[in-house]
Design goal:
- With about 800 residues, this protein is an alpha/beta fold.
- It has three domains: about 190 residues, no CATH class; about 70 residues, no CATH class; about 325 residues, no CATH class.
- About 35% of the residues lie in helices and about 10% in strands.
- The protein contains 24 helices and 19 strands.
- Helix 1 crosses helix 2.
- The protein is elongated, with a radius of gyration of 42 Å.
- The chain starts with a helix and ends in a 23-residue tail after the last strand.
- Pfam families: DUF7869.
């Protein structure tokens, strides 16, 4: 047998359950109780009847709006009740007014208090229970109001479990060791979703991102004018201002109804303003309710009237709940309407006397509107072009990218060719652009390597008028210092045979196959990467590979540099590299580890790697890219050998200078080195230099590696400053024990996506690709997990591999 304290707590919990169940039934339509709930009700029905005369006092106190966790109070005077607290969630509280109305019906008189939804407060309750035969109250018997969370209607894709709507626990009273777990709420929610119980899921409304902003017709001037006109307000249309609707002047001195005596000018203004505040349907109802049809009391024959009038209209206005008849002129001029409005209302009057018509204004289609089937055909054409995700998924951009060779004008040109071939109706370029921009979030990726964000932000300004003058001036100074230092290195290379000046850069991604045939624009193609190294007027190198043999990144760039260093003449003992500041490809710990390794393994004594200012990274190597694009302009490419021939023939032969062709080397998957493993084995410290200063890698402008100082990387933030040193081996590690680990990066050829393979095979079936190449395309490996991404990185983006900033 339970003690009285336990019985009272159980009785209170039963009442709370009843109140919350009523609210839940109204919300989600639960009509059946489970067997467990029925048993619980039977067990507690006697307790409720026995203690129905108990008096409850409610004491409120404010609590802080921090999450409330489940807890239990210390039992008092032999009672072992458990105080449960509901989890407070922002936006999920239910107004407790209705809760206490149901609560008092089951329990007894309680002070009616409310906890409004807007205030988001959780009230702590303290109940002092006093039996009517016993004047001593039972002390320290408290419970906390359990605030029911609204049943959140979630979408099927949401992984968040439903909130516990009942928040009941029978075992919490019987078992003193009971602790409510997070899984119990989920199980309670699952018990509600029994067969026959329907919980309607709300649809997830996600804003569709598009290239252009969506038009808002409500803000257009002519629509604003229409809306104000229908409301009787002043408006402007065709550069003419129209006044607001006010009662017109009327003369009813000879009127037999004495309209002006019955209604003052203030009454007329009130009628007019109230009428124009109504919508279209209610305006018609107002007219029909104040205008009635009556049969003529007498008829007079007229010579010019062939058919006598069957009925007449009587007009009224209401004053002091009494209808007062008025003349037609007074009625129309008071409301500022014409007789046609009244006739139109009676034309659509229903049997019950109300208006049954509809507002047909603005529902007629314009004669020049593009038909829906033509718009669907344009959408189908746009969706035929393959799209790619952003190369750097860490940005979580939702925009998709089209081939960089495409443009809206080019797409429209291909669309017109298709329409003429299939004899279909076509749209203009502006309509094609509008459909493209309003319905799709597509873009043509353009490399932003040569765009300086700082200079673009201060483009309308000068160094003196810029808001951020100091930073802009420093930026321009760094740019000039980089150009001056590069000029000095170039002059030194022309004087000293043992010193080599080289610039390198990764060219814009090339493609296989590549042609101007229209089916090429609708297909995905293989990517070709080309790292160009420009050494001097006589020597220039192309290190190229396809996406089957490797992706881009620091390991691929470092491997190409290592191959280049091994090819240098034996008399060269000092090399300086110049590149841009792309962190994923050039300025990172993997390339630094490779150069640190190369200076020890090759005949080179000193290697320097210098960086240009971001946004101002045009180098001699970029001239190679221009020459290659010119050589490719009128040539079709169907295999890697075609690109190799274009690279070799790209260098022009001028009369004054006989330049050697580019040295071309194709890399396979087993040529690339895993520089990530190399950096792990070599670089143990990169955060502090030998002076204990923190190294900011993102500001470094020059790195130096020397054979005489293994394990030391020298750096400086400005080209005119002196070098500082970093011991990358760390403290307490003998240099002789350093064993670099340099494995291969790939063990087999990389696969491509299934969609790309299907597009390539489709080009083979359509004989766009010559027959002699079909076997190679059919043998390409595929993978379901391979994705097509934008093959062109922006300068400020980071590579998928780790860089110095991490």
């Amino acid at each position: 047998m339970l003690s009285r304290g336990k019985r009272i707590v159980k009785m209170v919990k039963e009442a709370e359950y009843e109140a919350k169940k009523k609210k839940l039934v109204k919300k989600i339509g639960i009509s059946k109780e489970t067997e467990e709930i029925q048993e619980f009700r039977q067990e507690t029905s006697e307790l409720i009847e026995t203690n129905k005369h108990c008096r409850f006092e409610r004491v409120e106190k404010d609590t802080e709006s921090e999450p409330i966790k489940f807890s239990r109070d210390q039992p008092a005077q032999g009672s072992s009740e458990i105080v449960e607290m509901a989890n407070y969630q922002e936006g999920s509280l239910v107004d407790s007014t209705a809760y206490y109305e149901d609560f008092t019906d089951s329990i007894g008189p309680i002070d009616q208090g409310t906890s409004s939804l807007s205030e988001r407060l959780v009230k702590h309750e303290k109940i002092t229970i006093e039996n009517e035969n016993n004047s001593e109250p039972v002390q320290n018997l408290a419970f906390t109001e359990i605030v029911t969370n609204e049943v959140v209607q979630q979408s099927p894709t949401s992984s968040t479990p439903l909130a516990d709507p009942l928040n009941l626990s029978d075992d919490s009273v019987e078992d003193p060791t009971y602790t409510r777990s997070s899984s119990s709420s989920a199980s309670d929610a699952e018990s509600l979703n029994e067969p026959g119980t329907e919980v309607e899921d709300s649809k997830t409304i996600e804003k569709k991102l598009t290239r252009w902003k969506k038009a808002n017709p409500d803000t257009w001037k002519h629509n604003v004018a229409k809306r104000r006109r229908s409301q009787g307000l002043d408006y402007e249309i065709k550069k003419k201002k129209r006044p607001a609707k006010v009662p017109k002047t009327v003369n009813c001195q000879k009127c037999r109804f004495k309209c002006q005596e019955s209604f003052s000018e203030e009454d007329r203004k009130t009628f007019c303003s109230e009428y124009w505040k109504l919508d279209y349907i209610r305006q018609k109802d107002f007219i029909l309710s104040n205008c009635t049809l009556k049969s003529p009391e007498r008829r007079r024959a007229k010579s010019n009237e062939s058919i006598p009038r069957s009925n007449s209209k009587q007009y009224h206005f209401q004053k002091n709940k009494t209808k007062i008849r008025i003349c037609q002129s007074f009625f129309l001029k008071t409301l500022h309407i014409s007789n046609y409005v009244v006739l139109n209302a009676f034309k659509s009057r229903g049997p019950s006397g109300n208006f049954v018509g509809e507002d047909k204004r603005g529902k007629s289609s314009p004669p020049n509107k593009t038909k829906p089937e033509v718009i669907d055909d344009v959408k189908r054409h746009i969706e035929c072009f393959p799209t790619m995700e952003s190369h750097y998924s860490r940005r979580d951009t939702k925009r998709l990218y089209l081939d960089r060779k495409l443009s809206i004008s080019k797409m429209h040109e291909l669309y017109l060719q298709e329409c003429e071939r299939e004899r279909k109706p076509k749209v203009s370029l502006i309509t094609y652009k509008r459909i493209f921009g309003v319905n799709y979030n597509l873009s043509f990726f353009k490399p932003r390597k040569d765009q300086c964000q700082i200079c673009e932000a201060n483009k309308p300004c000068t160094a003196e008028t810029s808001k951020n003058k100091e930073a802009y001036v420093k930026h321009l100074k760094r740019r000039d210092d980089c150009y001056e230092a590069k000029r000095l290195d170039k002059e030194r290379a022309s004087r000293e045979n043992n010193f080599v000046f080289s610039t390198f850069d990764l060219q814009s991604v090339l493609q296989i196959p590549s042609s101007d045939v229209s089916p090429m624009y609708y297909s995905r193609k293989l990517c070709v990467y080309n790292l160009t190294i420009y050494e001097s007027v006589e020597d220039a190198y192309c290190f190229c590979w396809t996406e089957l043999n490797g992706k881009r990144g620091s390991s691929k760039i470092g491997t190409c540099l290592f191959e280049y260093l091994n090819q240098l003449a034996p008399h060269v003992d000092e090399v300086v590299f110049w590149s841009d500041t792309c962190g994923g490809q050039n300025r990172n710990q993997h390339v630094a580890a490779l150069l640190l390794y190369a200076v020890q393994e090759t005949h080179i004594e000193v290697i320097e790697h210098k960086f240009l200012e971001s946004g101002h990274s045009y180098m001699e190597a970029d001239s190679m890219h221009s020459s290659i694009e010119k050589a490719k302009k009128y040539v079709s490419v169907f295999a890697m050998n075609d690109w190799l021939n274009i690279f070799r023939a790209a260098r022009s032969k001028r009369k004054s200078i006989k330049a050697k062709p580019y040295e071309v080397e194709e890399l396979k998957y087993n040529d690339f080195l895993d520089l990530k493993e190399l950096s792990k084995s070599l670089i143990k410290n990169r955060s502090k230099d030998t002076n204990g200063e923190v190294v900011n890698w993102l500001l470094i402008k020059s790195l130096k590696y020397s054979k005489k100082e293994p394990g030391i990387i020298q750096y400086k933030y400005e080209h005119s400053a002196s070098y500082c040193s970093i011991n990358v081996f760390g403290k307490g590690r003998p240099i002789s024990n350093q064993q670099p680990f340099l494995p291969k990066l790939y063990k087999k050829m990389l696969p491509i996506g299934i969609q790309k393979k299907n597009d390539l095979l489709k080009l083979c079936r359509n004989r766009v690709i010559p027959d002699e190449f079909h076997g190679w395309y059919k043998s390409l490996p595929v993978s379901k997990t391979a994705k097509d991404v934008v093959p062109e990185p922006a300068a400020e983006d980071s590579d998928e591999e780790e860089d110095f900033s991490t």
